[in-house]
## 1
Amino acid sequence: MRPDEVPQENAPVLGGVRKAVYVVDQNGHYLIAQSGGDEAEVTVTEEAVAWFGRLAEDARQRALRGETSPLEYHMFRLRMDVPTLAQATGLWRWRVRRHLTPQGFAHLSPALLERYAEALGLSVAQIQSLG
Amino acid sequence: MPLSSSTQAITPIAFQHRQSAHCESGVISSLLHHEGIPLSEAMVFGLSASLSFAYIPLVKINQLPLIAYRMVPRFILKGMKHQLRLPLRFETFRSSSDGRQRLDELLARGRPVGLQSSVFFLPYFPENMRFHFNAHNLIAYGREGNEYLISDPVFNSPTRCALADLQRARFVRGALAPKGLLYHLDGPVPKVDHVPLLRGAIKKNCFMMLHVPLPFVGCSGIRLLARRVLKLPAKKDLIVRMQEEIGTGGAGFRFLYAAFLQECAVLLNNPRLQELSLELTAIGDEWREFALHAARMNKGRADLDLPLLHGLLKDLAEKETVFYKKLRKAV
């Protein structure tokens, strides 16, 4: 990459962060330039954010209809999925999956609720509502 | 000395912040600069032989297979410790309050401290860059009230982080859990001449890319990925998304290693390495091109063309194989 090829997409998704990239000048010497984000980077970041956004919105709708628990909504909203949440709480995946259902969630002990709240960085009251 | 009051300020030390392309190499390079050992980020990356490729479909991150372009986290730190016989001390903690106390104690002694943390819980990261990646590296160099002074190599200037947030980020559970890991140079740094070590480091890296007998590592890993791409179902969002998601990206590490080879060319007085450095730069540019194609197809901005991606990857595998063979001969 040459200094004049340093990408400057300046997409809002990157929040104005300018990462360091290595470029080669005309004399073949390496130097560090500041990138405003290239197209691939911007696209995949947007894509990843949107992926979680879609899942969270879908979970929210289902939670409103009583088909799933608020926990599933918060999980996706905070960019986790079942394996990540299982690892962050130290529970088996099948248990997490069960706890995501309305019935499973209703039977959670205060200790387990606390554990989920802790892993998500929320309070117990927050994970019990769709707020 | 452990501090009794958590609001007491710790006089910040004069610490020179440097921005770098990769967090781990950036942190150790900055810590070494602070001790008067001016090794660049690229030098650190190359000396620890950290360039790699791995495609591990069994490990899924957000339901996508893991693709890595460098060695596992902490490989650079451990490599540098071993190569330069650094008094680099790693400490993890069972309790988060012990972890905080130890950090404060080291800062009060005027020592910059490297920390492993989650990206998600660091509020100074822009909202859309915060994912659950637990092996990010940064440096703390002081504390004012309830805020730590942070030198994070991803950013172009030093920043701050509230105590509660940093605690949370250092003590998340899950994959690659940091367990409050902190590391610092404990004691005088021996004067080790790194120039005689370069040859071995380059050879080691070539071996890793060419001859490790695992089908998903090195150049054979790229070939495996190329074959797998062809078989991808029409579910197109399975394509390479992880590649550039947070970190430095596939091309980024190639450029970093090329910068290292350039430094080697001067230090070892070997002009062949300068040529090879430019060759690796060209390979890095091709990785960028591959990422761009994949991203566009992923987004639906271009038609899904799996044979094209397959061709690009096969070509890259071929070029990298030839490249490392030439590199091994050159040193």
## 2
Amino acid sequence: MKVGLFIPCYIDQFYPDAAIATMEILEKTGCEVIYPLDQTCCGQPMANSGFSAYSKGCDKNFIRNFSAVDYIVAPSGSCVLHIKEHLHDKDEEMAIYIRGHIYELTEFLVDVLKIEKLESGFPYKVGLHVSCHGQRGLHLSSMSELHEPSFSKPEKLLSMVKGLELVKPARWDECCGFGGTFCVFEEAVSVKMGKDRIEEHVIHQVEFITAADTSCLMHLEGILKRQGSPVKTIHIAQILNSRIA
Amino acid sequence: MKTMPHAKAAAQFIKDEPGTDWHDATLWMVRAKRDKAAQGVAEWELLREWASQIKAHTLSGLDSYLVEFERNAIANGIIVHWAADGKEHNEIILRIISANGIRKIVKSKSMLTEECHLNEYLLAKDIEVVDTDLGERIVQFRKEPPSHIVLPAIHLRKEEVSETFHLHLGTEKGNNDPQYLTETARQHLRNKFIESELSITGVNFAVAETGGFVVCTNEGNADMGTHAAAIHIACMGIEKIIPKTEHLGIFLRILARSATGQPITTYSSHFCRPRAGQQMHIVIVDNGRSKQLGRPDFRNALKCIRCAACFNTCPVYRRSGGHSYHTAVAGPLGSILNPNIDMKANADLPFASTLCGSCTNVCPVKIDIHQQLWKWRQVISSEGYTATGTKLGMKGMAFVLARPALYRFSGRIVRRLMRAAPFLFRSKKLNPWHRQREIPEAPKHSFNDWYKRNKAK
């Protein structure tokens, strides 16, 4: 199975460890991982700011890089959702193929690879942040607003990690306030939302906050660091790929 | 007067952090009540689907349903008026008032009359309207617009209400007992009802097949007003139509559950025909609705039944207050309705969201609210209502991200700068990220670098 690894731009630039962990998990499960070297960005920053017309170049580049694989997997629900909903091209057939074959990492592990056990260990108390685009967009877990059976793909995977104690905040699927360019254009609300999320995790004395989206974590990490908090953020891929020393 | 953009008004709101926390917690409590009520109905998701489809069907034949409604209403003895916009709506009401020599007017909750600025219009003609919904009365005393379509005074705490009542109703200074304050308001309003000659109400549902309509309140104030006054004027937007009475069996079940978590509003009053000696008028208002109906991407917003569940769940609304939206209808729903009416003045609103999607999930008529917010952003940019700086920034970013080598080069430069000269990124003025957040640590190598070094053959 040829799996194209899509590492969104800001993960590539600022969080290479999350990318390495993603690649290693996929390799461990026996996938043939292909990382196309000329990939950049899904185009979401422009599109969510109202300039989807400007993201055509990103669309083209994305299709150029990912047209020769069986699946495309990325450690970001948000970027995957953007591709699924908005990738278009003159060659619409290829765009349709890609939109139908791109997966967020935890979704790919649970739904496609049907992982039932992991060899990982992470002996810490971890708070789970549920990222909106993965949850409400990709349906990685059930949603508090809907009348539906309870499930969670990220939680299912985290429950396989040895030593990990998972805790969820009271408002377990409220947005952290990152929201792409919202985080700077609506800075006050964005930060207030992040502070409120953090407070609900800190009450449980978590050592880490994890999520399936690095963007939420980058925002929460920025606030935690400013607060001088000992709580760290970590991408779920790094937990799933970890070993007890 | 230039309105303050949402981001700025929200920043001011948040300056009072304990106040913001209170506002957030209060509305979250309403959201939690809504969850509990919704989960108490096994067929909840089915009800939402039916409600959504009935509204979709109605909107697709709105012209004929409106005419059917008018025909039946007239047959019932109701006088029907049509208003193209807020101005016509206000003029029609003024004409009825003048023709009957009316002095005393009460009005129950109607967001449409807020949208048309009826109170201000009549006040300019020296005619006072007394709002009889408790929350509406509080904000009316304070000369403020409502901050929420169901809970108009939710931005105020009991201490502030006490102070307002002390000034306007002569309650004891500093007595914040809600029971005492409500009782005073009750007595005050009781007199207004008894004196009233004309009563204005909104309309929750207008039934095409009967020509009757339903008004939902929790305080019974619409009924008190209409029972006492000789004239009843009901104001409705064209989208309030439902085809049949039996459809109320769906809409009345979802409305109050979505709004406040109650199984049904305390009063769901059916008005069909005037009683002997009473005049009953209906004003049917367009005010931009047919324009919205003509926008395929935004048509579904007209399904709204004004429950405000999207307000209560919105993490941005809860932390910025209704007034920051500078429109009669605030919240996520207001953000997809108001750009249709005035795109330039409301260009900021579709951006007052993280696109988290919770609004869409709670909507009892399944309006794709967050998708419409995204689509409005595209329309607003293409019509040129985005700041030039933002536009140029986006253009530059798109240029770099479409060119892999340039992207890698720029990434390397930025990371190097962040490591060597972090102060460049620490301007609180130029970099809003850094005002209350640290910037991420820049690693020496990108994943791309690492991969080429360690993996690429």
## 3
Amino acid sequence: MTKIYILLLGLLVISCSSSTSRLDGTDEEREYDALQLKGKWEQIVEKSTKQPVQSLACHKVVRLAQYRLGRAGQDAVFECLADSKMVLSSEVAAMMMSDVYIQLGMVTMAQRAAFEAMVKRADIADCERPLRRLTETALVTGQYELALKYIAIVEENFSSSDWVRTMKPLALHPELIRQHPVFNQLRENYEKTQDQFFL
Amino acid sequence: MRRRKISSFCKHLLVLVCSFLVVACSQRVEDAAFVDEYPAVYPDYVGVTVPVDIAPLNFAMLSDSVTAVDVEVTDSKGGSLHAEGEYADFDVDEWHRLLAANRGDSLTVTVCARQGGQWTRYRDFNIYVSSDSIGAWGITYRRIAPGYEQYGLMGLYQRCLSTFEESALIENTQSPGTCLNCHTTNRTNPDQYVFHARGDHGGTAVRSEKREVRSEKGEDRSEGLEMLQAKNDSLGGAMVYPYWHPDGRYVAFSTNKTSQMFHLSGLKRIEVYDSSSDVFVYDTETHTILMDTLIMKKYCAENTPAFSPDGRWLYFTTARRQVYPTDYDKERYSLCRVSFDAATGRIGEQVDILISADRIGKSVTWPRPSYDGKYIMYTQVDYGYFSIWHPEADLWLLDLETGERRSLDEVNTSRSESFHNWTADSRWFLFTSRREDGLYTRIYFSSIDEQGHATKPFLLPQQHPKHYYRQLLHSYNTPDFTLKPVKTESATVIDLLERSDRTETYVK
């Protein structure tokens, strides 16, 4: 984790086009989540200057936005890595943080945040977005059977045919991951990451 | 007259339509091409050995592109069973009749599968019907998401092994915010059990049939069910991993200060460890905690206790405590034993090391003696003790007569095998494995013969296993056999949990 990877938003667009309306979270978290998904970094910073941010996850998103705009350095973004437990205060917050982590190339932290969001929900019908993220992280970490399981669940429970058509070949033919611009970058970063622990 | 004609016409039309539908919908095998290989079925029931009273081994083809199967199960006496459709869904009664007629013999399974409009017939495979019944009514287990900090819906359940019937013993929706730990019976007898609940209303439920328990107010307390305080200050922690003494009076526990940390990369996700742990024995009659320095050493972490089937020995694991997180992969547990006198409740004066972690360079966890006294089955990992997060975790068998130990290669895979338990007659064992996808733990069964060889394990049957397991986002956890159905008393347990009064425990 010596280098920060700000990845293209392509993966987020793939992963997060699913609805978050069924996940629990504050209004503030929903607003920041929507802005982050659209990559509205200016609006995020502007919003935070008008009204102090309450949610810890929103605070992290603001920091990421500042970094994206060149108004904060790497150290400031690394602060996002702290409080990894406290920051997952709601399902929307957890998914928002999963997005932050994945943009920074921190796959296992993104995986953890998405998993926490999923298990809080009793109903699988509410879990499309976490399931998509868990699929993506499983592809990056080489857990292809797991990815196929999640894909099958998404396929059966949601109308996500485009997403399934993109993901299934990657899980069935992992060699294609190397040819995917976002997944390949995440995979390379993951393989280079020295194992440490986070809490 | 005219109305009668119309009615007759309608009947004929109905017969014609029905006939058409029958022909159209049947999955008749036509021009099947033979392939000389076993079918890739899910679950993998090819060549498994099953108890005579097991629920139907329904299965599907592994490939999603297979649209229909036609399955014939035959025996050498002319008996047969047929299933066709999306997957092989056998009639429960017919299945049991066929197995009962073939006790100690084998069944032949012929599978045809249709893919892309073309039928393929595969090489026949066998299912071996053991002459041993499963020796239990069913199993109990916890089902929980294999997660990090959050746990969402979880529960303790029981499942009949001859059918697909499952019922909840208790779910945490009945007591929000509660984490339910494993349900442990005495030698598979559910009349005595213990389980621990964590959370705001935590406590340790102990059900003992040996005595009438009365509260301070003189009220009867649900036939021996009592709720112990979650923690004893003198003990310094909760009662975590239990094991009943065979006479039913004592329960050995570990007390653990457990933490977890998450890997940033590599094959493992989570490392669960204890900053400290000890072993002690709880006397259910006097509510006394029997402590002994031999199993509570300051610089050692004693853990995972288990009594021998004759009650004379207390097995446990122990490791030199390490510094976390820096030395997390240096904590290795040895398997030890100390004598125990049930008459006096005294622990012996000498600890025997059965398997030395220093010698083997590995760590031993979850020792489970077979009830016939022949073996101890345990899980071996590279380090630590919380084996479900260790892909290298394998089942091992220690022969108590010869002292020899071996990996149970017949059942192990490159993924985690763990949480095993024996039937009361020690002919069958179950365990959990993450072999399917590396994360979601499932229950498998195997039998063991006189020479200690295990049969190919089979997955816990389900009505529609492929759909069920694929959609299931929970793991099976700490399963055990149960001789008979567990008396469901969740309302009483919840009531006891929510009441502020707890049975006090005393340290001796």
## 4
Amino acid sequence: MTGPSAPRREVVTGEPRRVRPLPRYRAQAEIQEQTALGGAYVRSLMRSQLRAALTVFAVLALTAGTLPLAFAALRDATAVWAVLGCAAYPLLTLGGWWYVRRAERNERDFARLVKGRPAP
Amino acid sequence: MSQTYTAVAVAVVVLATVLVGGFGLRISRTTSDFYVASRTVGPALNAAAISGEYLSAASFLGIAGLVLLHGPDMLWYPVGYTAGYLVLLVFVAAPLRRSGAYTLPDFAEGRLESRAVRRLVSLFVVGAGWLYLVPQLQGAGMTLKILTGAPGWFGGVLVALVVVVAVAAGGMRSITFVQAFQYWLKLTALLVPAIFLLLAWYGDDRPRPVLDLASTAAVRADHPLYATYGLIVATFLGTMGLPHVVVRFYTSPNGRAARRTTVAVLALIGAFYLLPPVYGALGRLYAPELPDGAAADAAVLLLPERAIGGLGGDLLGALVAGGAFAAFLSTASGLTMAVAGVLTQDVLPARGVRQFRLAAPLAIVVPLCGSLLVSDAPVADSVGMAFAVSASSFCPLLVLGIWWRGLTPPGAVAGLLLGGGLSFAATVLTVAGTVRSGWPHALLAWPAVWSVPVGFLAMVLVSLATRARIPAGTNAAMARFHLPEGLT
């Protein structure tokens, strides 16, 4: 085996770092150099993505927050079976599908914004 | 007679797991293959693998048992397990993948540039992973004991052995195939008997199952409404932090694929969760006298024999037993993979695939001892506690780390220690049985309602008080998390 002075072996599980291609658009360069304008681009994307996320989460939290109270008031076991045993799952999947469409549209809009002006 | 069929079914599942794992081993060559399947797993395969890994003993046996015992309010468990993925999708999925980290400690260190936070997160990952492994191994022991009369420790030891062989041999690449295969196996093992059970029920002139349980249900909590909310908070927010769930997202090729994978997972586990309630409802009809406590978890296993009987009942029972074993194996291997990954990177002295193969047995031996020592609580309840710890520690770390520029290392440490530490302490006190009734018991047994706000508040307040410690690379990290690949 190797001696005690042998350098410690490091495992690299990350992606291989490629040399970054030169930015093709001015906004891309602004983002990479972290200028005030570049920061504003990133913030605008984050805001639109967070809005989509919070929309889904608010609907989910409101529903889940009121349902137990509603069930306790109704005292109708059949309704509990129907909602929690069946109806909930397609609705959850539908919510996820809506969010993915929104998030991908936000990213497309952002890409269009960034590519709007070619680099000097 | 039925014991032979069950033994054969379990043996087939174990053998198939080892064989599929071996197939993965043949193409698992590099370190990157080993840990993250070289990040090339497409949405369809990855979604089946995530679902296969996620649907544990608690889903396969526990939900039907709890519904049988305590009534339809327990259906919040599967709804919460599913909704947790929706919360994960909207807040975490794509940025987590784009962060380029492999484990939660990697994420914490990359975002906060602090070794101390990294070590603390490692500690919590190992703790939460072990907490979640115990019920899997207990469930395996119980299943084999009830169906074949084997001693109680045998099932747990068998699962631990198979998992160590599969994980240590092939790593993530082979586990991906194993788990995708096990999702479809579990779905089949629950769907086919369910169809026959419904036919038998139809043939019996459709007796009306007792849906309303106000009179018959065993008292589960002094404060059922509070318990329901505790369950909702823990499962909705806890899913995103479960160590074996997080690791899976790094195997997606990019952030967009990670999102699409999550929607596919929602559909797959949603389809699966339509089935346990069927067993719960029919169980009230055909096996109402099942002893309470942990034995209710056996309802799914015993129902085919009770309701159908004869050779058909035996064969269907064996199919269910095989599916249950797939559930123990897949979740246990995913957790072992995650815990062993953290042990290799942060605890054991040297790194590399060889150390990983040493870490895998270590990762499962501790919970195995735990499962043999701790008296058996219902599987779904113990799993609920792992969710509560995850929701109070990892959820604030991930959500604030991804969306808030103000997070500082001291803030993260405070949130982890207060939120995660308190919920963990509450779990320990509950398991030890120090408090048995009234509000103190309810608050300790379902800690998420108070411990999640505590975790978030501590993180935000301490971060605000230590603004000077905001890491220098915060803006760059935010750009990396949120910008689509190709634009960064």
